[in-house]
Amino acid sequence: MTRAPVGIRPTSDLTRREALATATGALVAALPAFAAAPETNEAERHGISAFGDLKYPADFRQFDYADAKASRGGMFSQIGSYRYYNQNFLTFDSLNGFILRGDAALGIERTFATLMKRAWDEPDALYGLTTRAVRISADGRVYTFLLRPEARFHDGTPLTAHDVAFTLNLLKAKGHQQIRQQLMEFEGAEAADDGILVARFIANRARDVPLYVVELPIFSRAYYTAHPFEQSTLDVPLGSGAYKVGRFEAGRYIEYERVKDWWGADLPVSRGHNNFDVLRYEFYREREAGFQAFTAKNYLFREEFTSRVWATRYDFPAIKDGRVKRETLPEQLLSGGQGWFFNTRRDRFKDRRLREALNYAFDFEWVNKNIMYGAYKRTRSIFENSNMMAAGKPDPDELALLEPFRGKVPDEVFGEPFLPPVSDGSGQDRALLRTATRLLREAGYGVKDAKLVDPHGERVTFEFLIDEPTFEPHHNAFIKNLNVLGIDATVRLVDAVQYRARLDNYDFDVTVERLSLESTPGDSLRVYLGSQAAAAPGSFNLAGIADPVVDAMIDKVIAAQDRGAHTVACRALDRVVRAGYYWVPQWYRDSHPLAYWDVFGRPAGYPATYPRYDRGDRAIPETWWYDPERAARTERAG
Predict the structure, then answer these.
(1) Is 17's pLDDT higher than 80?
(2) Which single residue of 257, 353, 379, 514 has CA 20 to 30 Å from 587?
(3) Helix or strand (DSSP H, E) at 23
(4) Which fold has domain 243-331+590-637?
(5) What is the pLDDT of residue 27?
(6) Pairing mode, if any, of strands 461-466 and 451-453?
(7) What's the pTM?
(8) Helices (H), 129-256
(9) What residues does CATH 3.10.105.10 cover in the chain?
(10) DSSP E strands, 21-85
């Protein structure tokens, strides 16, 4: 399971063109008017980060994890493991990846240039792509971007500051709910001329909001004057990135073709990147079919997410004769929190004590050993696998943040944070089930006709919602213990489109999600945990968390003035969230199991040069390349 980073998952008498132009004009007219950019003595900057620290100097030639001498050609094909906004892992019916409607194709973001590009060997630094430099006002509210005159859309038309301003204002007004949520502290943008963009933010905005803005796609103003932005469509949008949409068959595959004369190819952020002529994403509705397709060389690169398959199925002929390579990269990033999330919008899950008790019914140790081959570790925190995870009792700095809320949060916030129980591995640990029964009894729950009833005498029943059968054994192990407690729980398997629609509209009891947070979490925490997101369709706050103290702790994270204070605030937030029992934590893996057909070249020193802040399939297709000699040897070996 995965995210969105802030990036996610996946709607008269005038002529059509006139109507669209009128609508676009109305949108622009509705935007606030801005004064001219203030005079500033701020120096031009080649990069930005959350706290201003940068690894690379202004004259850097390339990122250290890329090879500027990489050859170009060939194809990189995979089943995608990252989704943004309305994208869907299992299918697609749209090429509009930035609205709520539809299920967009994975990878569509690669067809758009952005103002700046992320360095994957730094926690949150970005360097100029479409922009050559940025000036920041003394109060941090105004960012003035100086654009590169050579930037072009794929039809050869110039990419100007007018296009960027149009895009940012459009996304703020009509983009996917997750985009609009993260642009709340962005006031708007205007073009001073073709080459100068002025972006404005509210006072005391989160420090990561500008970082989010500079990674948003840049649309053509002319294109979206003639085409409706809010439409879910398979029309190919006009892009400006290193790749453009090539062949595709909705729901089955999509290819992105490298733009041979791309304007940004020789920039420092691009050298050694975008080496494949074609990036191809395959879509399979079922994991077994996807695995079999890999063994048949229907695609070339695979990140394995099923521990049983990794432990038992990688013995096919191409593995034995060396045509397919396997390796495991360490997971050095914040893992985030994966688990079963309760929809607290529903009455049955409003009782925190019920949610706590249900944690004692899941036997992770048995599931890990018998279903997942011991490959996973237990998730405990929303900041798992990082120093932002709370441990032990709060230190003085954490207490300083938490004390104002004493009496408004559970007492355990001021003690040891909740840790998921450790079972005896039997699959039905009686001691843990007795603990669950005691907690339920103390909360006023009882048993009637061998079924658990709430304090009002209503039976406790609920449904787990999933979109693929792979997770059914894990659910069934949990459900077996819930039945012992007298709870009638079931699993409902639905198709990918229905699943996405039900999650967007919070039409579920319990579902699996992963909070895939950035390395330096900030404003994006509101999308996952904030009260405002809880009421907005399509947000990642699936649990419906609407706690003013959680909101206050998020504000503390956002207001942190240095990385140390940021870490302290995250730990305080972690304590409050964990005390709310909004989920039953599942598991995480501290490595990336990769398999690939031996046709690729990689930067020297790999995997030691693998950037620590990448998660596997982002930097790899950008910085590997197709090696014809290696591919020929692999072909001969078969």
Answers:
(1) no
(2) 353
(3) helix 16-30
(4) D-Maltodextrin-Binding Protein; domain 2 (3.40.190)
(5) 41
(6) unpaired
(7) 0.84
(8) 161-174, 177-182, 209-213, 221-226
(9) 337-588
(10) 47-48, 75-78
Q: Say how many C-beta atoms besides its own lie within 10 A of residue 415's C-beta.
A: 13
Which residues have C-beta within 8 Å of that of residue 355, sequence separation ≥ 6? Answer: 342, 344, 349, 580, 581, 582
> Tokens for 277?
């002529």
More confident call, 31 vs 74? 74
> For 220-252, how does the pLDDT look when each residue is reduced to its tens digit (9 = 90+)?
999 999 999 999 999 999 999 999 999 999 999
Q: pLDDT digit string (tens) for 449-462?
A: 999 999 999 999 99
Mean pLDDT computed over 44-51: 96
Task: Please give the full DSSP string across 383-418, using - where no structure is assigned.
Answer: TTTSTTS--SSPPHHHHHHHGGGBTTB-GGGGSSPP
* DSSP class per residue in 512-550: EEEE---SS-STHHHHHH-HHHHTSTT-S-TT----HHH
Task: Report phi then psi at 146, rounded to 5.
Answer: -100, 110
The CATH code of the domain at 16-61+118-226 is 3.40.190.10
Q: Is the peptide bond before 607 cis (omega within 30 degrees of 0)?
A: yes
Measure the CA–CA gap between 374 and 312, rounded to whole angstroms: 13
Taking the C-alpha atoms of residue 232 and residue 255, their distance in angstroms, rounded to an integer, is: 19
Are the CB atoms for 183 and 211 separated by under 8 Å?
no
Instruction: Please state the length of the chain.
Output: 638
The single-letter code of the amino acid at 365 is E
Alpha-carbon dihedral sign for residues 529, 531, 534, 537: negative
* Residues 368, 47: Cα–Cα separation, whole Å: 43
Give the Cα separation of 34 and 193 in Å (integer). Answer: 14
Maximal CA-CA distance, the chain = 76
Tell how strand 587-588 and strand 377-378 pair up.
antiparallel
Domain with CATH 3.40.190.10 in the chain: 16-61+118-226, 243-331+590-637
Q: Which two tokens stand for residue 618?
A: 């982002």
Q: Tell me, what amino acid is at 253?
A: Y
Residue 12 has pLDDT above 70, yes or no: no
- Measured CA distances, 135 to 56, 118, 144, 217, 414 (Å): 18, 18, 5, 20, 43
Judged against a pLDDT cut of 80, whether residue 4 lies above it is answered with no
Topology (CATH) of 337-588: Dipeptide-binding Protein; domain 3 (3.10.105)
| Structure tokens, 478 | 């949990």
Identify whether the C-beta of residue 179 lies closer than 8 Å to the C-beta of residue 523.
no
Q: What percent of the chain has pLDDT over 90?
A: 84
Give the type of residue at 77: S
Residues 336/8, Cβ–Cβ less than 8 Å: no
Half-sphere exposure of 606 (CA within 13 A, CB side): 18
Q: What does DSSP say about strands 301-303 and 488-493: parallel, antiparallel, or unpaired?
A: unpaired
Query: In the β-sheet with 583-585, what is the strand arrangement from edge to edge?
Result: 488-493, 461-466, 510-515, 337-342, 583-585
Give the pLDDT mean for 116-122: 96
Residue 279 β-bridge partners: 76, 256
* Residue 338 structure tokens: 């994966």
